[in-house]
Design goal:
By secondary structure, this protein is an alpha+beta fold. It has five helices and 14 strands. The chain folds into three domains: about 5-85, no CATH class; about 100-210, no CATH class; about 225-265. Strand 8 and strand 9 form a beta hairpin.
Length: about 270
């Protein structure tokens, strides 16, 4: 778990004294607001009346639902934490990419993920940038259940970390705006784009655990006298498509060179 810096711990101490909560409760709420990207928090702590939810703008629900005094104190604490986090450089995500986890009861949990950037409140997480370095900085990132994801809109790439394995997908012409994981039997991962709902499994995998994944080449089933020339034309057609993807920025120089060599080796 990421640790607080001395500055972060000093903030917790100050908030605890001024708002009348313990340092443990304030630390719990700090993480809750951070996980809600500064605009919301889902929490569960005895000093806050048990389980509850806060959203910036005044919406608050507590387990102790009729305790208006406690509601006011919790809202004040969350609002100040939100303001502090918003002033930390590189801490909160500004992208609109959102995740949704939907279970059998239809409950949906929405959140946008944030990194720790250059914030002076948290000790930098050495594993924060888990995606291939050549992708640069994501437009949005987050996590849901046992998965992490990072979306790179300009490069048309979506990186997904599942169980320690990192898969990088080509998002093609999709402008990804959401990530949804269906729980229970027949679980699946879907994305929302301008074309509607997209199954993650339908997107081409271009990198797995740091190694490029060759683009599939269409197979042919012709007689022996023409099979060689048709296979050759398929290879050159695939290289032309790769070149077009490279020109559009969808492929890096390394990916293009690697896949081109693999295709030429089939001749």
């Amino acid at each position: 778990m990421t640790q607080l810096t001395p500055e972060g711990q000093s903030l917790v101490n100050d908030l605890a004294q001024r708002h009348g909560f313990s340092q443990d409760a304030v630390t719990h709420m700090l993480w809750a607001v951070l996980n809600g990207n500064g605009s919301m928090a889902q929490f569960s702590h005895s000093e806050f009346g048990g389980s509850g939810q806060w959203m910036r703008g005044g919406m608050i629900m507590l387990g102790d639902m009729f305790n208006n005094n406690l509601k006011g104190r919790v809202d004040s604490l969350c609002s100040e934490i939100s303001s502090v986090l918003a002033n930390q450089p590189g801490l909160l995500q500004s992208g609109s990419f959102q995740s949704q986890s939907q279970g059998g009861n239809g409950y949906q949990n929405q959140a946008t993920g944030g990194g720790f950037g250059s914030s002076n409140l948290f000790v930098p997480d050495p594993n924060a940038n888990w995606w291939p370095s050549e992708l640069g900085s994501p437009n949005a990132s987050g996590s849901q259940n046992n998965m992490r994801y990072a979306y790179f809109a300009n490069a048309r790439r979506l990186a997904v970390d599942s169980g320690g394995e990192v898969w990088v997908y080509d998002t093609l012409d999709h402008q990804i705006g959401g990530f949804s994981q269906q729980q229970g039997s027949g679980s699946s991962i879907t994305l929302s784009s301008q074309f509607g709902t997209v199954n993650l499994s339908s997107l081409p995998v271009v990198i797995k655990n740091g190694a490029p994944v060759p683009a599939p080449v269409a197979s042919t089933s012709t007689n022996a006298s023409t099979n060689g020339s048709i296979a050759e034309s398929d290879v050159f057609a695939a290289i032309e498509r790769l070149a077009a993807l490279k020109s559009s920025g969808a492929l890096t120089d390394f990916e293009f060179t690697t896949k081109k060599a693999e295709l030429l080796a089939r001749l």
